[in-house]
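Hi R.,

Here's the chain you asked about this morning:
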Amino acid sequence: MTDDLQGQVAIVTGGGRGFGRAIAECYARAGASVVVTSRTESELADTADAIRCAGGQALAVPADVTEPDAVRRVHHEATSAFGPASLVVHGAGVFGPFGPIWEVDPDEWWRAQAVHVRGAALLMSTFAPDMIARGGGRFIVLTSSASRRLRANHSSYHLAKHTQNHLVSHLAAEGKPHGIKAWAVHPGMAATDMADDAIQSESARRYIPDVVESFQQQNSEEEVRARLRTCADYCLAVARGRADQLSGAYLVATEGLEEVDARIRRAGQSKAEKKLRRAASKARRLMP
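And here is the predicted structure, written out as tokens:
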């Protein structure tokens, strides 16, 4: 246990398993009071119990992040138990449906948009006012490399992740005057329970066989745990402020924090170069 995040309150959706659970446990070890939420009560209870057994503070609040009343309930219970949230991580997600647009169930397709995009927007609209009142806060949305490329037969997931990236950019721009920072973080690829659902899906094996094969090749539990730790440690560094100068950006956990530092240096150099060009242009205009 450390106290890097002592006094902070973190909300983690999808906190019952996979990347969400790994991040929740990591934040708790760093001293944050953690509220985990998802639709599966038993998984949440396991996460919260594990955190408390390790000496941390945790609260499990079952909720569907696509429902405004449910998100407001998470806000109410979290605030009542620990105080206003300063960190929000949206890790809830679904991987399907799989198949051509004209074959997949339209309701299932739209449900994926709701979990990834509507859920993120509801969290922002619900928790941002408290952050504004306190002078700032940080949002992390777990996205995917799928957000930056096209893969046939997986339109719902790819579109949802692409939209998440832009939503994060908007929050960063709108929240900047209020001290709110936000990032879309690609956590890496790990054979989590959500991935196992895809492996067991006949439509996934038919339409995205290369992705299924990649998950199947991760046959070591230690390898999966290592990938979860990499993401969790990365998100802890972001929560500590390591990437504050890159608010609004798409970050890749597996690229490491050295890449964050390099991007900050490049951004600083670019700003300095622009300043010099503006000064030179002004000087030329003033020359007789």
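One quick note: The chain has ten helices and seven strands.

Cheers,
M.
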